[in-house]
């Protein structure tokens, strides 16, 4: 194994020193075809996380509010598909594609989404575990979570109380909101771990995805929707709608959805992605 690693290092060194019989175009093509290492992905996300931790409160708040509002379009897209597709066993697969719409808008639009930050800003903390870094992480989490939920609540309230959508679509919204409360506290928490895990994995994959980022976002988030893994912001839009029309109480929102989903999303993102991927990079440094 050591000899193989030495040969790989020697080939890269020769490539850089131009000792191989390669044209500049061939050399660049080889470099372009080399997949980024875990260390490069880690450092790309860590540096982005450090930049996010240094953003002013107002910038984080407005970006978080925009993300919460944008996530409302996941509910709209799912509702449109659910209301217009025949009730067949395969229809849920198509409806799950609608779930990805809000995520595409948020991620491609560079808006602040809470579950992305269970990875992005945790890597700087794992690399520098001083108290001031922890406080910055908690500051960002608090601002982004609060403004994401505010945006989600505003969108859901408008959808429920303003006659923007026809009755057939409103009925679909209500059914989606009620389905988000299926399962008890521990079932919801466990499912939410998978949602946090998948969203953080999506963030980890994006630096290497390049022109395929749209596909990565769509495939992973539609899997979250199809698997009915609760997401704290996308799911809150759904349940807020049910609260606004009187089908769900606030105590049910907090006790059956928000608390277990928030805990699960954090556990899935921080422990299963951030900590494990940081550990493999730390191991490479030994």
Q: Which secondary structure elements does this structure contain, and how are they paired or packed?
A:
Elements: H1 2-17, H2 24-33, H3 38-53, H4 57-70, H5 72-84, H6 91-108, H7 122-127, H8 131-161, H9 167-179, H10 185-209, H11 213-226, H12 234-244, H13 250-284
Description:
This protein has 286 residues and is mainly alpha-helical. It has 2 domains: 1-34, no CATH class; 37-284, Glycerol uptake facilitator protein (Up-down Bundle), CATH 1.20.1080. Helices cover 78% and strands 0% of the residues. Helix 4 runs parallel beside helix 8 (131-161), helix 8 crosses helix 12 and helix 10 (185-209) runs antiparallel to helix 11 (213-226).
Taken as a percent bin, the fraction of beta residues is: under 5%
CATH homology group of the largest domain:
Glycerol uptake facilitator protein
Label the CATH architecture of the largest domain: Up-down Bundle
Count of individual beta strands: 0
Mean pLDDT: 88
What share of residues is helical? over 70%
Number of helices: 13
Which CATH class of the largest domain? Mainly Alpha
Low-confidence stretches: none
- Our count of domains comes out at 2
Structural class: mainly alpha
Largest sheet: none
End-to-end Cα distance? 16 Å
CATH topology of the largest domain: the name is Glycerol uptake facilitator protein
Q: What is the radius of gyration? A: 22 Å
Shape by Cα distribution:
globular
Features of this protein?
286 residues
Short note summarizing the structure:
This protein has 13 helices and no strands.
């Amino acid at each position: 194994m050591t000899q193989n690693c030495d040969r790989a290092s020697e080939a890269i060194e020769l490539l850089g020193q131009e000792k191989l019989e390669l044209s500049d175009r061939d050399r660049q093509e080889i470099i372009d075809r080399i997949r980024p290492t875990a260390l490069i992905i880690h450092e790309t996300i860590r540096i982005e996380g450090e930049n996010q931790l240094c953003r002013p409160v107002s910038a984080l708040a407005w970006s978080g509010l925009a993300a919460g509002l944008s996530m409302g379009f996941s509910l709209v897209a799912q509702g449109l598909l659910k209301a217009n597709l025949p009730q067949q066993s395969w229809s849920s697969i198509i409806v799950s594609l609608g779930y990805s719409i809000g995520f595409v808008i948020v991620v491609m639009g560079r808006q602040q989404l809470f579950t992305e930050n269970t990875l992005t800003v945790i890597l700087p903390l794992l690399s520098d575990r001083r108290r001031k870094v922890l406080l910055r992480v908690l500051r960002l989490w608090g601002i982004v979570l609060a403004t994401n939920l505010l945006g989600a609540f505003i969108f859901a309230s408008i959808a429920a109380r303003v006659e923007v959508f026809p009755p057939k679509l409103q009925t679909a919204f209500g059914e989606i909101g009620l389905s988000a409360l299926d399962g008890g506290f521990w079932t919801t928490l466990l499912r939410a771990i998978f949602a946090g895990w998948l969203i953080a994995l999506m963030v980890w994959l994006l630096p290497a995805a390049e022109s395929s980022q749209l596909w990565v976002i769509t495939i992973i988030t539609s899997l979250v929707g199809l698997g009915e893994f609760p997401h704290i912001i996308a799911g809150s839009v759904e349940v807020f709608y049910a609260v606004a029309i009187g089908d769900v109480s606030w105590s049910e929102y907090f006790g059956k959805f928000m608390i277990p989903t928030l805990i699960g999303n954090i556990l899935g993102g921080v422990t299963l992605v951030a900590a494990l991927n940081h550990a493999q990079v730390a191991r490479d440094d030994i």
